[in-house]
């Protein structure tokens, strides 16, 4: 490579101008100063036994491809919740008793052109009830609808208490029978819970089993959701009948269904990446080899995940995107280094060796930082996040193998094309105006401008980020689009039923056979009254809510008797007339149901705090209030886990990444130069989340760790090249200019490649995938900008400038 330079030599503090023309620079392979022994050991194995190594990669790829082909969607209730949190531990202890209140699906059957009091509607409701009864995974004994025998009415008459099924035996749809059903519904007190207030729809309440009692297999939420769609919605929905389905299982099923479109996004990202690499390298050979290695990394990652017994849940299904994008972004450095080295006349094998030596350590450290960013997610004790962390860490590990080992070997065979070399020579012969401009940030005066601007931006972002909340900020299922079928169904049920689908359940533990005693009744009644005064609570109900009504009913319906009784015989008689779901089999636990207006983060925080305060003040040997079950109770536990784990995760990821950078460069000043831009990007990301109304939750928390781990790649590659030129004697500005010429474009392409890999998620039907795509795109691009602008600026102000041998004055 021939260039014209004017050099300034510093000898004993005196400047002497030297002119060097037609300087021939030929890169020489150099061992890493700290890990030269590792490189010296690995390099001969790779390049002296290239064919056996290729055979090994081929056989491993066949094995992992076979395993990956057997990977199936997988999701379970317990994986989505923090099972080690005290709330969840309490819930799981009483899971069987609380099943009708826990993992439940609600199917609202609406008559669009009339009310429910018609033979046609009630016949359709019966068919739907029977159809649901035989769907695998349904807890059939606790299934409820107007047609099931566990939904009854009661009435006090002159002859005493009487009751029966709401839809009587022998129902034939005659006007008399229809009128009897109408009367029974009013007498049952089910209006607002199983029957809509406007009388146009009823609910089929479907509790679920986590495992099939016959086969022991876990409930397949994707399959279960599809069965509800085909057997219920598609089969029975007509111009007169509208079906609305809500519940945790339906949310997960819709997420799995939406995730199937992820293959289309992967194909789009795949094609865009190929076009981007071709535009950058102008070489089909290196592009094809790079894409092959990165595709193998995805196959290996999926195969290993399958061998570990994991499946693809709606969260970890995004990991192959990241694996592919990270692999391509690192491979760009190989292409860039290979093309630059080939211009000097070196052979393919020599340039492959040079590429290996130059990139193995910084590339491995950068990938190790990626793995750290992923692995810190393990501190969040939620199954889906931990599996995502493991899956993503595996992806990074296989990238080290395919990109660091396999790619140099393949490149030693195929090399780069003449078109690539001509394009590389053209780039090196250009005037590098962008590099000239950006290198000014390595001067103190421009560095101060960049740093002060970043400090101002950080201050504004930090102020906005204080509004960031933990948990959901929207009603319905925020993981799905606001106009999704599920959220429309949820809005209908919320608007037409007084018992909200957002239920916070507090379990009241008592000695055996004492759950109906007056001391328990008195404190539970006070608890219900206090909770009903908390903002966000619609209503509450418990065993004693029903007991008051029964006591009044047995006393001629006189409302003066609608109160708790100290007489044990009276309370026991009322107790026996109430559904068994309101207390445990041995009467040692009764649930208090708190129906909420929504499950937003502030609402759940308020409810949980009020319930905890009451429990702390009233728990004793007779009665203990245990939190929490119900969908809102479980979500409150999830929010608490995330709130506690977030600072711990951030400390770990920043601390470990900083230690790795410190180990690589042996300078706390350089470590600050690389880490500060990452911190600024994290705060900016939190500010954007606050502005977009996105809370910190299971779907968004991984973004911060991923952005930090992957973003540090830019800084490591850039400063590694700056250090290389500084060691040759260049001053900082000249070293950074040379870095921009050799590595800057590759880093920019890295940022664009990573961003393209996740940008396609924005069009996903699944909102949390779209949110993750948007946030990761921002973090990848902004980390790139921060590395290119802030690292030289901070280095100019923090890193002492030792007297150099040469300083770049003019490049032509």
UniProtKB/TrEMBL annotation:
<feature type="transmembrane region" description="Helical">
    <location>
        <begin position="317"/>
        <end position="339"/>
    </location>
</feature>
<keyword id="KW-1133">Transmembrane helix</keyword>
<feature type="domain" description="Membrane transport protein MMPL">
    <location>
        <begin position="501"/>
        <end position="798"/>
    </location>
</feature>
<feature type="transmembrane region" description="Helical">
    <location>
        <begin position="286"/>
        <end position="305"/>
    </location>
</feature>
<keyword id="KW-0472">Membrane</keyword>
<feature type="transmembrane region" description="Helical">
    <location>
        <begin position="775"/>
        <end position="799"/>
    </location>
</feature>
<feature type="domain" description="Membrane transport protein MMPL">
    <location>
        <begin position="194"/>
        <end position="423"/>
    </location>
</feature>
<feature type="transmembrane region" description="Helical">
    <location>
        <begin position="261"/>
        <end position="280"/>
    </location>
</feature>
<feature type="transmembrane region" description="Helical">
    <location>
        <begin position="359"/>
        <end position="380"/>
    </location>
</feature>
<dbReference type="InterPro" id="IPR004869">
    <property type="entry name" value="MMPL_dom"/>
</dbReference>
<feature type="transmembrane region" description="Helical">
    <location>
        <begin position="392"/>
        <end position="414"/>
    </location>
</feature>
<feature type="transmembrane region" description="Helical">
    <location>
        <begin position="446"/>
        <end position="464"/>
    </location>
</feature>
<keyword id="KW-0812">Transmembrane</keyword>
<dbReference type="GO" id="GO:0005886">
    <property type="term" value="C:plasma membrane"/>
</dbReference>
<feature type="transmembrane region" description="Helical">
    <location>
        <begin position="674"/>
        <end position="694"/>
    </location>
</feature>
<feature type="transmembrane region" description="Helical">
    <location>
        <begin position="649"/>
        <end position="668"/>
    </location>
</feature>
<dbReference type="Pfam" id="PF03176">
    <property type="entry name" value="MMPL"/>
</dbReference>
<dbReference type="InterPro" id="IPR050545">
    <property type="entry name" value="Mycobact_MmpL"/>
</dbReference>
<feature type="transmembrane region" description="Helical">
    <location>
        <begin position="742"/>
        <end position="763"/>
    </location>
</feature>
<protein>
    <submittedName>
        <fullName>MMPL family</fullName>
    </submittedName>
</protein>
<feature type="transmembrane region" description="Helical">
    <location>
        <begin position="701"/>
        <end position="722"/>
    </location>
</feature>
<keyword id="KW-1003">Cell membrane</keyword>
<feature type="transmembrane region" description="Helical">
    <location>
        <begin position="45"/>
        <end position="66"/>
    </location>
</feature>
């Amino acid at each position: 490579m021939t260039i014209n330079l004017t050099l300034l030599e510093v000898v004993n503090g005196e400047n002497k101008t030297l002119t060097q023309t037609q300087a021939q620079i030929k890169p020489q392979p150099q061992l890493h100063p700290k890990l030269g022994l590792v490189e010296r050991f690995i390099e001969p194995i790779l390049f002296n036994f290239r064919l056996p190594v290729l055979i090994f990669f081929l056989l491993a790829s066949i094995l992992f491809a076979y395993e990956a082909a057997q990977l199936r969607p997988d999701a379970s209730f317990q994986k989505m919740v923090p099972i080690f949190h005290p709330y969840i531990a309490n819930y799981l202890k009483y899971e069987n008793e609380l099943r009708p209140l826990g993992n439940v699906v609600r199917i609202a059957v609406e008559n669009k052109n009339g009310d429910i009091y018609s033979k046609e509607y009630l016949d359709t409701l019966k068919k739907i009830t029977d159809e649901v009864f035989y769907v695998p995974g349904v807890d059939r004994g606790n299934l409820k609808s107007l047609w099931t025998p566990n939904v009854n009415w009661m009435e006090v008459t002159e002859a005493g208490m009487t009751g029966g099924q709401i839809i009587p035996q022998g129902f034939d749809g005659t006007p008399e029978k229809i009128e009897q059903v109408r009367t029974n519904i009013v007498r049952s007190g089910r209006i607002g819970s199983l029957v809509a207030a406007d009388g146009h729809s009823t609910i089929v309440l479907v509790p679920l089993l986590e495992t099939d009692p016959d086969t022991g297999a876990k409930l397949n939420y994707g399959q279960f959701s599809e069965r509800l769609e085909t057997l219920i919605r598609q089969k029975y929905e007509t111009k007169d009948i509208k079906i609305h389905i809500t519940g945790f299982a339906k949310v997960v099923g819709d997420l799995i269904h939406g995730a199937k479109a992820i293959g289309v996004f992967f194909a789009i990202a795949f094609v865009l990446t190929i076009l981007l690499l071709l535009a950058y390298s102008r070489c089909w050979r290196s592009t094809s080899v790079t894409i092959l290695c990165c595709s193998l990394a995805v196959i290996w990652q999926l195969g290993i995940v399958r061998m570990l017994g994991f499946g693809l849940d709606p969260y970890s299904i995004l990991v192959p995107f990241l694996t592919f994008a990270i692999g391509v972004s690192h491979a760009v450095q190989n292409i860039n280094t290979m093309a630059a080295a080939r211009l000097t006349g070196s052979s393919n094998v020599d340039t492959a060796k040079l590429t290996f030596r130059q990139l193995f350590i910084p590339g491995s450290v950068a990938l190790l930082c990626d793995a750290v960013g992923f692995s810190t997610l393990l501190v969040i004790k939620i199954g889906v996040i931990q599996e995502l962390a493991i899956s993503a860490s595996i992806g990074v590990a296989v990238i080290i193998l395919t990109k660091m080992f396999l790619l140099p070997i393949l490149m030693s065979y195929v090399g780069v094309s003449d078109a690539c070399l001509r394009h590389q020579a053209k780039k090196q012969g250009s005037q590098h105006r962008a590099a000239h401009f950006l290198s000014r940030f390595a001067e103190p005066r421009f560095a101060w401008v960049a740093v002060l601007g970043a400090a101002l931006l950080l201050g504004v972002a930090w102020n906005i980020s204080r509004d960031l909340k933990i948990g959901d900020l929207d009603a319905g299922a925020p993981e799905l689009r606001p106009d999704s079928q599920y959220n429309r169904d949820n809005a209908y049920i919320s608007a037409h039923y007084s018992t909200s689908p957002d239920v916070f359940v507090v379990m009241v533990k008592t000695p055996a056979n004492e759950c109906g005693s007056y001391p328990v009744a008195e404190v539970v009644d006070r608890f219900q009254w206090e909770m009903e005064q908390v903002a966000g609570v619609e209503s509450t109900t418990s065993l004693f809510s029903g007991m008051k009504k029964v006591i009044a009913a047995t006393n001629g319906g006189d409302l003066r008797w609608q109160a708790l009784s100290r007489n044990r015989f009276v309370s026991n008689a009322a107790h026996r007339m109430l559904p068994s779901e309101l207390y445990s089999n041995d009467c040692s636990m009764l649930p208090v149901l708190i129906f909420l207006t929504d499950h937003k983060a502030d609402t759940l925080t308020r409810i949980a705090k009020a319930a905890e305060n009451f429990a702390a003040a009233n728990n004793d040997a007779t009665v203990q209030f245990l939190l929490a079950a119900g969908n809102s109770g479980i979500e409150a536990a999830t929010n608490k886990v995330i709130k506690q784990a977030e600072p711990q995760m951030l400390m770990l990821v920043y601390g470990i990444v900083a230690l790795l950078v410190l180990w690589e460069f042996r300078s706390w000043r350089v470590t600050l130069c690389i880490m500060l831009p990452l911190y600024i990007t994290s705060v900016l990301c939190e500010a954007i989340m606050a502005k977009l109304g996105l809370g910190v939750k299971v779907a968004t928390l991984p973004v911060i760790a991923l952005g930090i781990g992957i973003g540090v790649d830019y800084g490591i590659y850039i400063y590694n090249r700056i250090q290389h030129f500084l060691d040759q004697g260049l001053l900082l500005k000249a070293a950074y200019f040379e870095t921009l010429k050799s590595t800057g474009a590759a880093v920019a392409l890295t940022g664009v490649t990573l961003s393209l890999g996740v940008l396609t998620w924005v069009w996903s039907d699944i909102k949390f995938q779209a949110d993750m795509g948007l946030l990761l795109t921002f973090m990848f691009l902004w980390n790139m900008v921060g590395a290119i602008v802030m690292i030289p600026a901070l280095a100019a102000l923090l890193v002492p400038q030792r007297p150099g041998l040469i300083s770049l004055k003019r490049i032509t």
